[in-house]
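User: Please run a holo structure prediction.
Assistant: Happy to. Please share the sequence and the ligand.
User: Here you go; the ligand is adenosine-5'-diphosphate.
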Amino acid sequence: MARTIAKLSAQKLWKVFGPRPQSVLRSDWRDKSRAEVQEATGHVIALRDVSFDVAQGEVFVVMGLSGSGKSTLVRCLLRLIEPSEGQVVVDGQDITKYSRRKLMNFRRKKAGMVFQRFALMPHRTVMDNVAWGLEIQGQSRRTRLERTHEMLRVVGLEGWAQNYPHELSGGMQQRVGLARALAADPEMLLMDEPFSALDPMIRREMQDELIRLQERMKKTIVFITHDLDEALKLGDRIAIMRDGAIIQVGTPEDIVSAPFDEYVGEFTKDVRKVEVLPVRFIMKPPKTRVYDWQGPRVALREMRQEEEDVAFVVDKEERFLGILAREAAARAAEGGDATSVAQLLETAPIAFSADDSLQWMLARVMDYNWRLETIPVVDAEGKLVGEVHRTVIRDLAKDALEVRVGVQARRSTTV
Ligand SMILES: Nc1ncnc2c1ncn2[C@@H]1O[C@H](COP(=O)(O)OP(=O)(O)O)[C@@H](O)[C@H]1O
Ligand SMILES: [Mg+2]
């Protein structure tokens, strides 16, 4: 597979805050922990050897607890803070080598930034706030007007153009911030905890909005958050930061199913597994599988051996055809009138796809009032690839319920 060139790439970035960063970087302190360095020298290692690539159109989420270095990182990507060491490469160009002038140009054309605390200008109308980036770009008044109105429509704020920021709710203000970042049509969006100050409801709305916009715009996005649910919802990939270093990078599924250590585990333990993981994650290899040309006696023997009441019937391509009940096989074996199990399939071939979410599976199991002990799982071609036992589903449903109740309990104490 051809490797795509990164849109944005951080290469061995370091940032040390303090009077003499190089004295730390050019000594043994470099390899000491952040706490040790701070204690002994007063310097803070805010970024430690951070490297990653973000592909064109990708949403790359950076997650970490407060103080882990997220804001420093996202600012270093635009050189709003100068990195102490390392490179930032955008479209193959090392921007750490850019002159001031080139850098300003780069920021205007390529990057939009959205901050947590809206950062709107209070004395300017909504319209003039959104038009700000276009003014800096030197766009004509007409272009500014058109573009601004279009952006306000995109974020659902038409009609508010002449209002001032303080007349808007937090969610609306953040929409203005988003419209402002989008107005100049940047190729990259850098978003530093843009939704963290919003109520949970509004926050989810804004997340949905961003997903919807991104489907159309396909920007390259670096999105900072300290919230795992948000990271799992928005990220194509997630990088986890601790003490200035990236300790794990992966897809949302990687992060939840194989947390790198307790720090990541701490984030993930609360996640509703059922909402993010696919059936594949809990299935086991199918136990009793018989081929459609085999006879009832062979099938019966198979089921007895495995102590199962049903067998999954497949064709020679391993495609799932249906379920054979043990009684049906037993009756046919006695009567001797069926020559192959294909004639004995009682149930319609209902199966789950390995890529279905656990949530979807749970809902369907409840809908169908499924009475089988074990449920077949197929791949995209309909081949039998696994099974999920009823007890596993029951435990899953219980977990899901407990988490729900837990979440509600927590909510009701905070409201
Ligand atoms: N200008 C600064 N001077 C000194 N220390 C700083 C400065 N900015 C940030 N820090 C320190 O760097 C670390 C990372 O901060 P920050 O990037 O803001 O983390 P986050 O955004 O993940 O909360 C923190 O320990 C913070 O106190
Ligand atoms: Mg921050």
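The pocket of magnesium ion (ligand 2) is lined by residues 70-71, 193 (CB under 6 Å).
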